[in-house]
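Form 7-S
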Amino acid sequence: MHFTSEQRLDDAVLERAFTLGEVPGILWTPTPTPTPTPVSVSAPAPAPLILLSPPPLGLRKAYPRLVARARQSAADGFATATIELPGSGDRPRLPGAERAFADLRRALDAGEPVSDETVDALILPLVDRAVPEWRTALDALLALPGIGGPVGYSGGVISIGTRLAVVEPRIEAAVLFAGSFIPRVMFEEARRVTIPLHVLLQWDDEGNDRQAALDLFDAFGSREKTLHANMGGHTGVPPYAGDAAARFFTRHLK
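Output:
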């Protein structure tokens, strides 16, 4: 992990950009409040870590919403980190992604069902590439001073979060955004998920298969899982939904 820039946000959060191989990312850590007394005190305990998975828009476009979540998490005592998804931002496009997206747009514009083949071609290569990168990033992040477990995961694409919850034992709780198409194979993987889940669903999301999202929630094997459904489209998540997600992480990671 190579840090490329650093800035303080309102003296409360330290933001550091980094690269991990070819993958760019950002790390946010809470800044300790300075003490005026020169008394020897023990070092603060390592901060729990939340992995903020971005939407497939590129980190530059997603930055405002990511930094808002990072600020709230820092206020709650969490470190947060994000990495650029495969095929997003300045990273090379995934093979077949443009054709799959074009097929998706044609089906949506024509009011037709999106085929399983199109969903698989669009989502599965992304999951197959992103999950190992997240695990490598987690190795590097947990090796840094001041950061420790437990670890949470927050964001979409929901299939990435589902796969990570199955294969990565260091993730102990997850907030999943139900706003993307879901390959059929993910329903079988969902049955193997056992960590606590908090799932956000926008009821009128124009680009999401609502029934598939409900079916995936039903398939999750977690004994503790909560579905928060709000009226509105894909970008209409109400502010209080973020407050509920923050309370979820405080309950399970602190």
